[in-house]
Queue: 2 jobs
Job 1
Amino acid sequence: MAHQAKKRFGQNFLTDKNLLEKIVRLSKIKSLHVIEIGPGQGALTSFLARDAKDVIAYEIDYSLKKYLDPLENKFDNLNIVYEDFMKIELDIKEVSHIVANVPYYITTPIIFKFLETENIQTATMMIQKEVADRLNATPNQKAYNSLSVLIQYYTKIEKLMQVNRHMFHPAPNVDSIVIRMEKRTDRLLDENEEKKFIDFVKRSFTQKRKTLVNNLSTYPNVIKQDIINYLNDLGYDERIRAEQLTIDDFIKLSKGWTL
Ligand code: SAM
């Protein structure tokens, strides 16, 4: 019996071979180690296994095994693991690359897992257009938020192509974009400073309509006037909002933050 796509697992399958070939080519994974999230019925997986050095693919839905078994038999370099990608502890020994048509309901957590996992150098992902707009947004744009700042600090991000919703079965309610993120090796902050930076950026955007001073007041035991003085000393107006700040502003402000 044909597989009934499961909405709760974000199952929207691709079949167009030209599109799949293009994603694999632009992901630049030839002869490299690849991690796929959600192989589904294996549409992307077979092209990845053909080109990569090896592929490990994590699939939450065991009922897709009937589609994936023949591929695992065909390709010696393919290993399918039937587990929830968000629950596994990744310990990546060799530099690896994510390629995935990701389930939309966990796009952001997957991006954070990519950022936090050592030795995953790039991620080529099909994501909903709205999230792609956020990732690429610049100050004063509506979509600009903490995710935009963090992703642009950690990675160099490229939009590879737009994909119409009708390329999927079943068609989702949104159009998609394939992006490729490559971790920067020239990051300006050390590990401790980065922890401070992440917290600072997230707090700065707690409520987008509020001023930076008000959002930073969520730090425990800080005095509002001290925040105002700190901003003024660094040359910022006390009415400034997070959405007006560039990544360099956030780096400067979080680095000196001791309140
Ligand atoms: N790669 C296939 C394709 O392009 O046709 C399927 C893509 S579909 C958008 C997302 C896939 O991710 C589904 O096969 C779904 O079962 C799987 N999935 C959903 N949540 C997952 C999770 N937490 N861990 C691993 N796989 C997951």
Note: Residues 230 and 236 are 9 Å apart (CA to CA).
Job 2
Amino acid sequence: MNHALPIESSSGFISVTNPFDGVEVGTVVDIPPEGAQVLIETAKEGARACRSLSRYERARVLETCASLVERDRDAFAELIVAEAGKTVRQARKEVLRCVNTLKLSADEARRNGGEVVPFDAYDGSANRQGWFTREPLGVIVAITPYNDPLNLVAHKLGPAIAGGNAVILKPSELTPLSAIKLVGYLVAAGMPPHVVSVATGGAALGEALVSSRDVRMVSFTGGFITGEKIARAAGLKKLAMDLGGNAPVIVLNDCDLDDAVESCVSGAYWAAGQNCVGTQRILIQSSVYDDFRSCFVDRTRALRTGNPALPDTDVGPMITAQAAVRTKRVVDAAIGQGATLLCGNTQDGSLYAPTVLENVSFACDLWHQEVFSPVVVLQRIETLEEALLLANSPEYSLHAGIFTNDLHAALKAADELEAGGVMINDSSDYRFDAMPFGGFKYGSLGREGVRFAYEEMTQPKVVCIRKSEYATRKHSATPR
Ligand code: NAD
């Protein structure tokens, strides 16, 4: 049941299906674009309700919700497996991260209320004192993708509620059920009605919402093409854009090779590679290239691909059969341009076997575009300088990694990798929910990570007091 949906649709329903077997998991109302105005009016009421809550009350809702989600973590995990095709282990981890995201959001509500402004620290304002508060923006439209259907939603709702805003949440039409369940738990935790409305529907509804003048911010996580459309439609409002990546990981010859292989296997194939910080390109120094390749391909071949609900499955399905077909097409094109296939590249419905390639042309899409699939490119490099040049070659980036025990090499990579996060002796897909998170080059707008999203979702209001002449004179008078 959609707890927060204020309108009914005459146009029908969206069937949400299990990516592995196609069985229907649930249905949601398909709200047409004409429904946007009702959602916006409802959210304006929600914005008044949320801003009038004390910080204690906002924090209490978020903390209570965190406890309820933690209590029902198995049910949340089952739903993620069913609608998104993540494996049980991956889904459980996502639920626990969501609990943490909600708790961190409660902390921001309590802690991040504003600051004293030291007016008298500069010439000309000795008779002023004051502060700034962090005020809500009002109505925020949050649009989320399919691949982390719970925690990425929490990354928008938690900071927005902590900041006193209302949210119209448009989850991916492929995976709206975890989002709806989470909003139901927020209501059960005491969130006033209308603070969050779930706008179940497709691109047309999303576009109608983002173009409204009553919306103060669009917080978007998804692909570049959609991000560009939203930026064009949004007009004058705040935009946060969390878009794709094509993460490079550099492996230098002095590193712990077994550790590098294990970390890169996890980084590449987590969530069947449908991971914005998933490892896509591994740049390996010549003297360890052959050993790395042989271990990495062996480990890849050993992964069990299949039903994500079974506890020993390592790699679940892709979100749809079309996504798997598209991946095969991209890989076939790379092979057509001279790449060598080392393993994988078989597709059966939504299942796509983890795939490793080498000798990939730098002109291929597979080199410079996000593939968002369980596909890895191995590249031999001679020097760190060469690796950095190649790592930085795509026009956008999110995370990057390096494996080395050479402190100078690690620091040089931290300095020169063009990425929002550089992981040293870890694969690119490490993320902790409190750290700043976002892209670095084309399309990067704003940061998530709870404190950073909260700050994007609030606006400072300055209060400045001019002290009376008498008080100023008294204060500055020279003692006799
Ligand atoms: P997508 O861009 O296809 O869709 C994302 C959301 O946008 C969906 O809810 C969709 O309905 C909505 N949408 C589509 N067209 C719209 C429009 N014209 N106006 C408004 N809304 C519209 O992305 P996806 O396929 O669901 O997710 C995969 C992408 O998300 C990948 O590129 C991945 O890297 C990215 N992603 C980024 C992060 C991050 O934090 N940087 C995290 C996860 C995923």
Note: The radius of gyration is 24 Å.
